[in-house]
Amino acid sequence: MYAFFLSFAACLMATMAGREQLRVARLASVLGARAGLLVAVGISVAVTSAISAWAGTLLLPVLPDSARSTVIATALLLASLQLAVLRAKPAPKEPTWSFGAILMVLTAAQICDAPRLLMLAILLQTGDVIPVAAGGALGSGLALLAGCCTGDQWELRVPHRIFSRAVAALLLITGLLIGSSVL
Hints:
mainly alpha; 9 helices
């Protein structure tokens, strides 16, 4: 259960701080919280969480214990960099209504985003594949669902840039601490 809750909390925070929640909120403000958008969010989160867990299962047996901390620190630092630097694009003026296009964009954007990197780091630390994947998918899914349901109100009520920088700083400090312990 530890791996599940750690993955859930980390992915919820990272998704709320990342640009995907804003992308979904902006799409929902133009398209509405339609069933197609909700399904696309669910599928994209499930697929990308499964890919992250699969990548972790490939790395876990071949990565020596001495290198594991280095990979975990690198994943945390990359997640921090993503949250600090990458920004969401403005709401599309004429968004597509195509379910397939929305699904492809959401999935491609989440393949290596901060929550998936955190899932990989947690999986390498704990070794619990299913709880980490389930917790990460649930955390990211709830954050994206909140963005979808609130639409344009999300940006008005949440100080996203401050939250994003705070989470990025937290991940940076954690990555540096883990990385310095390796040296």
